[in-house]
Automatic annotation (TrEMBL):
This is 3-deoxy-D-manno-octulosonic acid transferase. Belongs to the glycosyltransferase group 1 family. InterPro entries: Glycos_transf_N, Glycos_transf_N_sf, Kdotransferase. It is found in: Cell membrane. GO terms for molecular function: transferase activity. Its EC number is 2.4.99.12. It catalyses: lipid IVA (E. coli) + CMP-3-deoxy-beta-D-manno-octulosonate = alpha-Kdo-(2->6)-lipid IVA (E. coli) + CMP + H(+). Keywords: Cell membrane, Lipopolysaccharide biosynthesis, Membrane, Transferase. Pathway: Bacterial outer membrane biogenesis; LPS core biosynthesis. The keyword Lipid biosynthesis does not apply.
Length: 413
């Protein structure tokens, strides 16, 4: 496995070299400096620890329902959460559902052994992706029960390539693999991996719980009062160009837009382009006529999942770039959903389209037609909304399946 260790070393060295010039690289490098001293000072050696590892923020959201269920039903365990990427760690470094949150030291044989010597986990849970060969080998050598949850395997993955032998062998480190769909189970069976459970996607449990107990947001409630509301979440510039045209073409409708990144220049440009006026969420109380504006810009993080509850229509950003963001947060409230063309990797998006609950658009004209068709046909709107909500409800339950598998034979505390 010399080639793998060489690659890890080259990657770590490259990150260090570019860290003075790139913020994300700097966070990655600085976050791992003196990491073992920090771990030794923080983590108690007498604790019963379950180690959860997520690559980034998206994987964290997949594992979050399971971590919260462990906290609720098995409180004698402490939770150690690690991240590979700054985009996960920097946002969730103070996550209250874990007892400790750290960066994961680079996957070298020495680091893997020292990490496990320090934290001594009773169980290790990897979330969706991240197959670190040295960590998995060391966990296996120490006979630490190791699992992967919410995993998805595709035919073009390295496990199914002729040169993927080391990664196929790494799959044997897992006591059980909890996958999202039967396709993944079949692919694994084809390479002799049968300790697999189709549990589903934990995100359905997460968004369902959010919808059930959605936060009341007085500013949003005041803005939305008495009008039909269109909510656009996690938007990027290509999305916002289309949305500004849609807003200006529908002066009788209220719009709420939550940009994916809080870029001041973009926010000001969008606000200035809307003829019906715009107000920022963080300044709403200071604007006497905020409720009369047509656009509310969500310029803070952490509330979008509840904002969808005020909408009658939703648009999910990212589809004109690397891929759409979370469609389920909106669908959980029973809202018809639209998004850009890059959605093929997301099963839930394909499913929602097939059910008539969602529409992929490639232009402003297509988005305008979709909205107008639902506005003019209330029966069609009702069917789309009902299918969206029913889809999320019917797919809940993955967290419970995983929890039973992780703690097989143990009574809940």
């Amino acid at each position: 496995m010399w080639w793998y260790n060489l690659g890890i070393g080259v990657y770590s060295g490259a990150v260090k070299m570019v860290s003075p010039f790139m913020r994300k690289a700097a966070l990655w490098y600085q976050g791992r400096r003196d990491i073992f001293r920090k771990l030794e000072q923080a983590v108690g050696s007498s604790e019963r620890i379950i180690w959860f590892h997520a690559a980034s923020l998206g994987e964290f959201e997949q594992g979050r329902p399971v971590m919260e269920a462990v906290r609720e039903y098995y409180p004698s365990y402490k939770i150690l959460l690690t991240f590979f990427s700054p985009s996960g760690y920097e946002i969730r470094r103070n996550y209250s559902g874990a007892d400790w949150v750290f960066y994961l030291p680079a996957d070298t044989p020495r680091n893997a052994a020292r990490f496990l010597d320090t934290v001594k986990p009773e169980m290790a849970v990897f979330i969706k992706y991240e197959f670190w060969l040295n960590y998995l080998a060391e966990l296996s050598r120490r006979e630490v029960p190791t699992y992967i949850i919410s995993a998805v395997f595709r035919p073009d993955s390295i496990f199914f390539r002729p040169w993927g032998g080391a990664f196929r062998r790494a799959l044997r480190s897992f006591r059980r693999l909890f996958v999202q769909d039967a396709d993944s189970q079949a692919l694994l069976a084809g390479i002799g991996v049968t300790n697999v459970t189709v549990a589903g996607d934990t995100r359905f449990d997460r968004v369902g719980r959010i919808a059930d107990g959605a936060r009341r947001l007085p500013a949003v409630e005041d803005f939305a009062a008495g009008g039909t509301v269109f909510v656009a979440g996690s938007t990027w510039p290509p999305d916002e160009e289309i949305l500004v045209r849609l807003i200006n073409a529908n002066p009788g409708m209220k719009f709420i837009v939550a940009p994916h990144e809080m870029d001041e220049k973009r926010i000001k440009e969008m606000a200035g382009a809307v003829r019906g006026g715009a107000v920022r969420y963080t300044e709403y109380g200071e604007a006497d006529d905020g409720g009369e504006k047509q656009l509310l810009i969500i310029d803070t993080i952490g509330i979008l999942s509840s904002v969808y509850g005020y909408g009658s229509y939703a648009y999910i950003g990212g589809g004109f770039g690397v891929g759409i963001h979370n469609t389920l947060e909106a669908a959980a409230f029973g809202i018809p959903v639209a998004f850009g063309p890059n959605y093929a990797k997301f099963r839930e998006a394909r499913d929602l389209i097939s059910l008539g609950a969602a529409r992929s658009i490639s232009s402003y004209e297509e988005l305008a037609v979709w909205l107008a068709s639902l506005q003019s046909d209330r029966q069609a709107y009702g069917r789309a909304a009902a299918e969206a909500g029913a889809y999320v409800r019917s797919h809940r339950g993955a967290t419970e399946i995983i929890l039973r598998g992780l703690f097989e034979g143990q009574e809940r505390e």
